[in-house]
């Protein structure tokens, strides 16, 4: 898992550091910079994959703008290089430096992880050799080799997990027709490819399909689904059972409500071994009942731990917060806001404490009453 992420000079972010858990929820008013944080992580993933092209980044949820808008434009902030850093410990072990147009002219990615940068051990050996050299000529030759290694660009991914990072924002229109055209496999950021992936799981790992069906018990009327074996070529249909319908009557995904389809997509993301180990979902509460939001987050925490996934979620729905247990350090809540100069900033919220003999205030209530921040204060 990625434990720390730092970003400087990206859109509304001047300087920001995140200490991440397994399930991370970001709240904040519209335009505070939540999506910019997710984009910055996705940009680091694109850099780790050495794929800084519009064709690669746009389908991954990165909104590429003209260079002047890719860096902060606040008063006193001149255009600077975008700097990203991340690591599996408390300090970053991989650093990325990019110009605003995302077309680096020289070295731009460095890693202190031996498994990430194959030149690390070579550089350490050269440093030791320089220290042991007996003549200036030998030291000069070794220094030239060290300098060449130090400026060598390492093009292979430092972290496959980061290289696969995506910002998902599923759309009902895509899920309803099981749209399968996607540049990203197995699942596109708008929900493309869901039927094809469910069909593949039914053949290769049918136990996972049963797991997905079991997790949909959060929908009160749901009584299971099947993938028909007699579909015509190109036909994409899911047969769904409603426990209230007589005679075992079935219907397909086009007649299913959007909340069910969103839930099906989220559970598949978490359960499938082919989906990214680290990903984000923008507006996790879209189309979901408030109580279902709370239950979904609790279920996502359980599934993320069971299937070794790391999530970043954004929301405007206070009910989502009630699904978090902030006494578990793997579950973290962050409030995103804008400072007096306009720069995005982040503050982690700790678990609320009891007030005397009363239980702690619910996070949803604390959010709505303004105790946590993250609400507009201009009206």
Summarize the entry for a quick read.
The chain has 379 residues and is α/β, with parallel strands linked by helices. The protein has twelve helices and 14 strands.
Walk me through the topology.
Layout: E1 4-10, E2 13-19, E3 23-27, H1 34-48, H2 54-57, E4 82-87, E5 94-98, E6 109-111, H3 120-132, H4 136-150, H5 160-163, E7 166-168, H6 172-177, H7 194-204, H8 206-215, E8 222-226, E9 239-242, E10 250-251, H9 258-271, E11 278-281, H10 290-306, E12 310-314, H11 318-321, E13 331-338, E14 344-349, H12 363-368
Parallel strand pairs: 3-12, 3-13, 7-11, 11-12
Antiparallel strand pairs: 1-2, 1-4, 4-5, 5-6, 8-9, 9-10, 13-14
Helix pairs in contact: 3-4, 7-8, 8-9, 9-10
What can you see in these coordinates?
With 379 residues, this protein is of the alpha/beta class. It has three domains: 1-118 and 160-165 and 318-379, 3-Layer(aba) Sandwich (Rossmann fold), CATH 3.40.50; 120-153; 169-275, no CATH class. It has twelve helices and 14 strands. The chain has helices at residues 34-48, 54-57, 120-132, 136-150, 160-163, 172-177, 194-204, 206-215, 258-271, 290-306, 318-321, 363-368; strands at 4-10, 13-19, 23-27, 82-87, 94-98, 109-111, 166-168, 222-226, 239-242, 250-251, 278-281, 310-314, 331-338, 344-349. The strands form three sheets. The protein has a six-stranded mixed beta sheet. A five-stranded antiparallel beta sheet has the order 2-1-4-5-6, covered by helices on one side. It has a three-stranded antiparallel beta sheet with strand order 8-9-10, with no helix packed on it. Helix 8 (206-215) crosses helix 9. It is globular, with a radius of gyration of 24 Å.
């Amino acid at each position: 898992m990625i434990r720390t992420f730092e970003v400087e000079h990206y859109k509304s972010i001047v300087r920001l550091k995140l200490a991440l858990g397994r399930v991370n929820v970001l709240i904040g008013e519209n335009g505070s910079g939540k999506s910019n944080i997710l984009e910055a992580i996705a940009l680091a993933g694109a850099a780790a994959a050495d794929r800084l092209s519009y064709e690669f980044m746009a389908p991954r949820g990165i909104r590429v703008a003209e260079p002047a808008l890719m860096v902060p434009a606040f008063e006193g902030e001149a255009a600077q290089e975008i700097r990203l850093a991340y690591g599996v410990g408390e300090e970053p072990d991989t650093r990325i430096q990019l110009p605003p147009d995302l077309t680096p002219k020289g070295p731009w990615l460095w890693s202190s992880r031996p498994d990430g940068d194959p030149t690390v051990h070579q550089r350490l050996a050269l440093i030791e050799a320089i220290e042991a050299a007996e003549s200036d000529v030998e030291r000069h030759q070794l220094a030239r080799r060290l300098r060449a290694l130090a400026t060598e660009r390492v093009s292979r991914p430092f972290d496959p997990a980061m290289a696969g990072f995506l910002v998902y924002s599923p759309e009902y229109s895509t899920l309803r027709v099981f749209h399968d055209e996607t540049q990203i496999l197995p699942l596109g950021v708008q929900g493309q490819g869901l039927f094809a992936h469910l069909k593949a799981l039914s053949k290769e790992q049918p136990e996972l399909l049963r797991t997905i069906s079991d997790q949909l018990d959060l929908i009160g009327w749901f009584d299971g689904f099947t993938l028909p074996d007699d579909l015509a070529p190109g036909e994409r249909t899911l047969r769904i059972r409603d426990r209230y319908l007589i005679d075992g009557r079935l219907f397909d995904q086009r007649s299913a409500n959007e909340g069910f389809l969103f839930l099906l997509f989220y559970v598949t993301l978490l359960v499938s071994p082919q989906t990214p180990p680290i990903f984000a979902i923008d507006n996790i509460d879209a189309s979901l009942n408030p109580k279902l939001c709370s239950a979904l987050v609790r279920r996502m925490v359980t599934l993320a731990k069971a299937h070794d996934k790391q999530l970043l979620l954004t929301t405007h729905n206070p009910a989502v917060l009630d699904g978090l247990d902030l006494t578990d350090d793997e579950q973290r809540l962050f409030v995103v806001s804008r400072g007096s100069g306009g720069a995005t900033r982040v503050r982690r919220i700790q678990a609320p404490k009891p007030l005397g003999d009363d239980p702690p205030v619910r996070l949803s209530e604390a959010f709505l009453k303004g105790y946590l921040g993250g609400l507009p204060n201009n009206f």
